[in-house]
Design goal:
The structure is a homotrimer of 550-residue chains. With 550 residues, the first copy, chain A, is α+β, with helices and mostly antiparallel strands. Chain A is built from 16 helices and 13 strands. In chain A, strands 1, 2, 3, 4, 5, 6, 7, 8, 9, 10, 11, 12 and 13 form a 13-stranded mixed β-sheet that branches. In chain A, a hairpin with a 4-residue loop joins strand 6 and strand 7. Chains in contact: A-B, A-C, B-C. At the B-C interface, helix 6, helix 7 and strand 8 of B face helix 11, helix 13 and helix 14 of C.
Chain lengths: 550, 550, 550
Amino acid sequence: LGRVLRPYLKTCAAPLQEAARAASSIFLCGSWKTGALLCAALLFMPRYFVFAMSACVLGGFIAKLMQLPTAMRKDGTLLYNVFLSALAVAWITRGSTLGLAAVWGMLGVVTVYTLLLSAALWHWFPLRAGLPPLSVAFVVSFGTLLTFFPHWAASTTLLDMGLPEEPALPFVATAFLRSMGTILFLPNVWAGLAVTLAVLMWSRVAMINAIVGYAGGILIVKLLEGCGLHWLGWFAGHNYLLAGMALGAVYFVPSWSSLALAFVAGGVAALHVAAVQHFLRGSGWEYLPLPYLLTIWSLLCCLRLREKPGSLLPTAGVFDNPEAAAAALALANARFPHRHETHVLLPTAREVTVTQGFDDKLSHRGEWKHALDFEVHDASGNACPPGCDDDLSRYYTQGLEVRAPGAGEILRVVDGVADNAPGGCNFASNWGNHLILRLDYGGIVKLAHFMKNGILVKTGQRVGAGELLGYCGNSGRSPVPHIHLHNQVTTETGAPTAPFCLTNFFIRSADGVRWNFAGVPKVGARIAPATVSTTVLGTLAHLAPGAATY
Amino acid sequence: LGRVLRPYLKTCAAPLQEAARAASSIFLCGSWKTGALLCAALLFMPRYFVFAMSACVLGGFIAKLMQLPTAMRKDGTLLYNVFLSALAVAWITRGSTLGLAAVWGMLGVVTVYTLLLSAALWHWFPLRAGLPPLSVAFVVSFGTLLTFFPHWAASTTLLDMGLPEEPALPFVATAFLRSMGTILFLPNVWAGLAVTLAVLMWSRVAMINAIVGYAGGILIVKLLEGCGLHWLGWFAGHNYLLAGMALGAVYFVPSWSSLALAFVAGGVAALHVAAVQHFLRGSGWEYLPLPYLLTIWSLLCCLRLREKPGSLLPTAGVFDNPEAAAAALALANARFPHRHETHVLLPTAREVTVTQGFDDKLSHRGEWKHALDFEVHDASGNACPPGCDDDLSRYYTQGLEVRAPGAGEILRVVDGVADNAPGGCNFASNWGNHLILRLDYGGIVKLAHFMKNGILVKTGQRVGAGELLGYCGNSGRSPVPHIHLHNQVTTETGAPTAPFCLTNFFIRSADGVRWNFAGVPKVGARIAPATVSTTVLGTLAHLAPGAATY
Amino acid sequence: LGRVLRPYLKTCAAPLQEAARAASSIFLCGSWKTGALLCAALLFMPRYFVFAMSACVLGGFIAKLMQLPTAMRKDGTLLYNVFLSALAVAWITRGSTLGLAAVWGMLGVVTVYTLLLSAALWHWFPLRAGLPPLSVAFVVSFGTLLTFFPHWAASTTLLDMGLPEEPALPFVATAFLRSMGTILFLPNVWAGLAVTLAVLMWSRVAMINAIVGYAGGILIVKLLEGCGLHWLGWFAGHNYLLAGMALGAVYFVPSWSSLALAFVAGGVAALHVAAVQHFLRGSGWEYLPLPYLLTIWSLLCCLRLREKPGSLLPTAGVFDNPEAAAAALALANARFPHRHETHVLLPTAREVTVTQGFDDKLSHRGEWKHALDFEVHDASGNACPPGCDDDLSRYYTQGLEVRAPGAGEILRVVDGVADNAPGGCNFASNWGNHLILRLDYGGIVKLAHFMKNGILVKTGQRVGAGELLGYCGNSGRSPVPHIHLHNQVTTETGAPTAPFCLTNFFIRSADGVRWNFAGVPKVGARIAPATVSTTVLGTLAHLAPGAATY
């Protein structure tokens, strides 16, 4: 028998896993195991389980037929609105006198319609509105269904669904657990407990944010009640906790700031609940998670207007759970404190000494403080052999090959300025012979004080990283030959400088030579470019703890 | 008299043709002759004709004054909402006791407002929502009018408009023809018949899709009625048939799949009719084609989410009617089966032999199966003169000029790898000397196994089609000199390959030489580039049936 | 005491100025002085003043905490919705029995929510809808508040607010001034007069447009009343005058056309008022400036669809007031009549004679009329020394250096066509040796009739302005050596030409040499490029009246 059944079981496994992922997507969670537990919680009402699974199988089949994106089908994105709609159909028809054919026909129509709408909105929303559609397809299709059958909407407040009797708990705990259960149309403490445990298995941080969001919602409920407003605030608790979970843990990396956001989100959701209930009173739509959607959309848009992210950072990338996102961020901050800055390579192949650093005494000041000067010194720290201070050509840096600090395009070249005698300065031509290079990966770099006619590249030319750009000289405001390097905010000559850091270089010290992934060397540091592949080192750097030492 | 009238007639002809095009636009049809027939059908109610023509003349004048796009004015896009609004005004004021001035004032205000709104939405919708606005301006302006005058909305269900008495037909036929007439506010079998004939003159396929869409709508009406829902499903038939026609024949190329889509569209439109009637009951908006708009928008968005178009292809370009779109697609498929692939020219000017094809035994396998190897062979099929197998320089392919297979930009150049002795292979450097070229018209092409220092181009350089890139050699994993050509999905070295085909080349066979517009030659084929202009041949190829033979 | 208070006063000054800017933003005016006067007008109801200032301080603090853009906070964009909401709260709670804590709690919640929503919409609207959000955040948050407390909405029509007794004025004047006051929730003639004076201080043109917009609105009110429609048209006057002011003076540069637009805008706003009042009757939303928003959005979109701006130009840039915008436009039109055309430099460094101009007799005709031919002539106007007509090499223009008329990219180069003997023409190759150059600042320029092998640049190459492109010859349809220059609409060979003008050149006449910023020289003009910096001259040109003479 097993032999006969196995292929059928395999065929069934895929849609069941898709259904589990659909269930987990309701909580914005990507773990199908949590989804499986949520599906198991549906067994409080076996009718729910059967309807949800049937809808997912039908929905998956139609999605395949229509060649909707495989990834969206598999990760539950497309099907979770279908899943919710199926639960909704199971819920409103639970005490109905309708025939089996009518009920299953309704389930079929609702499933197909929800799937089509879900696909339409998953195309439209991210592309056109720049917002996640979340469960809006469910809200629209089920809201419409409630509009058709207003007497069902009227019966939705009745909680006598044959669910297990509830234990005596503090009112707040009962309300919270019921709200958890309500998300799966199971307004019952035991069901809510099952859902809570499933979510906890996935992420404790998410659950904390849910509780904080709920608290924020209840605070506003109390406040509005104090103003004499009567409404179904308690019933709509799922909006507060989902809003708290989504904004405090999923869309933003968990932190104290995001916890505060979860609280605010719960409060805003409560305001939206009150508004929606007044506008749509009696239409059945007042039970739907529309306030949750409005809250997510308005707060996401609001936070995108910020000038600086501060301590509230949007989650970048896909993580197992909020904890993993926070851990990844913390690790990245610890390992690569400079990673948001422009990265440039040392613009020479030789070992050089930093003779002026960031915000330094001489000329790297004010708006032009993010700049570095480099010279070649001998072992004794001299810029030229002793007694040759007057002979420009004896300076080690004169004629030094200057190389591109990254791939990019040459935006401007000024050449033809004469080299100064040692100690002299040309104040008429501040930068002397110089070039501006826009790096492909960000940054507008200026390299200055080239030798007269010492620049080999032309405006508009593309250069690769490390490509020879020209030869260092002593032109412009330069008493001794040196390379001036800075990063600037616009392409104009004289634009203010912007932070940057050198990448993939060695610093020589008394202890030996130490490799740096990125950093800004101090004055006097003797540094040299690491000639090994940045790709290899970048990859290794992710694996090994601490900074690599040569 | 004729002499006196002629200039006036000419001045009148333009707005009348614009009105005809406006009428045809209601059915998404670009033929002004069909529009003229539809206008003629208005003569069932001469009042309609006068109102519609007056509104089009006024609307056209204002559009000109405002310098709205000439093309949109002429093709009916801007005026068809005005046309419909004028019919609507004629309809609701048909039995009114309002004075002439009030009626014509209302017509004027509605015309101007509808035109302004139509222009606003034709700017906003395609640009911001990525969707066709269709008749949304009419819906909003006429819906508002009905809101102002609710007693008119109440009288809209009365069908006693003085239209000719209807013949005894089966109920479904009566309902369908009435729905056809309703689009022009003429809910009468005879008027519907006139409209039907006008549409049939334009396209029989469109009419079939209208009928199928209508059937889909009626099916859902029956189903919802089976669930106990009572509503005006029959009255809203124009939504089903317009949705079927639009999606089954106009927005998608007619095919069996699009016929199925028309059926689904009719059903979805019926669901939207039910929803709109419940939400807007008593406001007058329930008679408006809002469900048709919602259906088009949601299904268009839904189908745009698909990964692959399959057999349901969006109509590309402007055609006389759906039949012409289907014919053009069928012709294109028959003539240019490779037209969706990347097209590359043979990367040499010589006749070469294909020594390894797609998905071939040696190394073009798995993810790297879309690749071709070329060698120069003599008439006997040898790669070098007999007995010279050990002398690399005697191989015909060694030093062969390799030319750009299309215009584009050089993304990567690797040079300096030594050539192998014949029979040798350099497994340390798989590709030997090679380059990657991004083609302007799509495709990322790799050419490999150049001679040491044999590449003449640099990273970042632009090359034209046929430009000399370098000389073939025997570097990398290459036992005998050959050109390796493939197309890859990303710019990374080692990225999987993607399908492509050669274009504009000759294949020599026993029967002579045959020209190919595009194709993937088989192993052993002797091929040579066609040196004549691709523009000329491409143009000729469209005209002449069959493939050109040299 | 002053010493102790000074730092506190300084801390208070910033939020007070922000509040003044918020007040001025209501009238789309950027002057904080007008805003301060409007705030002073609030003192008719000291409660209003206190509420508005408190909300602005709280809102400014939260905006800072959230790192919302400093500029938007300072210019009133973010806070003016908060300002209006605070007035609204002061208004609806003016006669309420609610405790102080409830009222101030409500003010706090409304302020925070309005700020969040305002930020969300200022991110979303411009980016996604391409429209200004204006006061939509206020409409939504206050509309929701009215929905919560419908009895307040009912009391909003009562005008007995303890405002000063009104003087006996003509009905229209009373209505207009009340509408002006209503914007600050002060429906009283004296308050309206104060607001009017504040706006007049900023701009008389804006006030004229407000009056014209009001007139347009009242016309439609009368018209609809003539059709038997009863509604609160008079009450909603602020919509008409704000719409007139916004479209007639702020979004478009004031002109006779914009005055007409203000009239239309007032009328459209009245239609929207009627529609909104019917749709939202009894919800409280009918008193909100939603019709004003709908009017701005629909007319802005409508006018953006225009093909040509005509005399109704959108305001470009930020100006002190509409008068300044109109003056700046008038000055620019007078000084730079060619500024909307493509600007090209003379493609040579020598003085040349224009031998064929725009729309000229020989070959610059029809679609190719925007073209110029240049030759070098001697002082007597000869193209070569007398008697040398047969010797091509003696023509002054033969071998002339042709220089890039602007920075850009070479799109096409055709070279290798033989030079004609003098007097000959090569009809097989119309353009002879030529190149097409896409200018970075717009324009696709063709330069034709180069010497055989006389083009020095390659396809795909970037060139700077004035860079040497090649040497003039006598190839193609050219009987004597000359440079042909035109600007074309697409990159195709043979594409129609488009208007352009030469920039920064001298014209020599009997009176001397005159510098031209831009212009199209006539046939026979002797012109030479100005070699001085265009930046310097462009800057000077803005300062000095009239055209500079050399």
